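Example record

One chain of 147 residues, shown exactly as stored in the release files.
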Amino acid sequence: MPSRRVIIAGVVAAVAIGAVLTVDWLIVTEEERLEGFVDTVTGRIDNERIDRALSWTDPKLQPMELTFRGQSLRFDADNAAELPSKAYSHLASYQGEKLTLLSKSIEVKGARATVLVDTLSRRGRTTVEYELRKSGDRWLVSGVFVR
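Predicted structure tokens for this chain:
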């Protein structure tokens, strides 16, 4: 029969391991938060998904640049109200299409993050680089670069 010291040491070790696992489970890293962003910008394109993607933007607080097909658009405090209508109009022809995630990369450096997603749709393969900046406890998109 194990001695009392061995039993106590075992209980202490089990409690310590449980505490470490609980703390790890409760703490959400910045990378894990940005996993939610990846989920938002991949999958079936519909109005709800566009709304969720727009919730990661606030051009009044964080100006953003959009580059695709040789065009570049910039949104800031002066034209922030135009962003939703531009997003819906530019994505109208993609409604119902599914962006299947092939690979992703999330890199966080302080208050800046780069998210790279490689997707496949019926139109082909697309790589998009997103730049995000931390504003308070929120991540806001500052750049979208479609390759």
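Notes: The first strand starts at residue 43 and ends at 44.
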